[in-house]
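SAMPLE LOG
Freezer: B-3
Tube label: C17
Construct: single chain, 173 aa
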Amino acid sequence: MVNEKRATPAKATSPVGKRDLTTPEVRVLRRFRLVFNAVKTHFQQVEKRAGVGGAQLWALSVIRAHPGIGVNGLAASMDVHQTTASNLVKALVTTDMIAAEKNAPDRRAVQLRIQPAGLRVLRKAPGPFAGVLPDALATLDAKTLVRMDHDLALLIAALHADERAAGIPLAQM
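STRUCTURE (predicted):
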């Protein structure tokens, strides 16, 4: 008896149009490789052209778009943990790409502003600043995203993955 889960459609083709007789698992694995390689290539181009990592570039673009944003606001905008945003801010302040000013009545809260060095980095960097994966996901319709979310949740459960890793930018992996 044929395992229907592993049955391959007779006319399945690979992305380049050749007949593909591999299993569904292998085809999905290849698609993940394509996604990961596209993301990795983009971050390598960012690093080469701009001289900063992808997460730093994204943070710079958020700070430029929202002058005076705080660390918590930056973390929320990037969907990362507050400590991750704080570490990005420290690195950007150290390299004079941003300034962190304590002008508010609460002297603990900082307001972030982009500096000329940060603007120069953004001009040199290839877009999209948030990365190619968030940009591509934004082009998909809601129905597709809901289906992907459900299917990826099943994969994450099968992997027994640590969900805390969801707050780490891809550029830092």
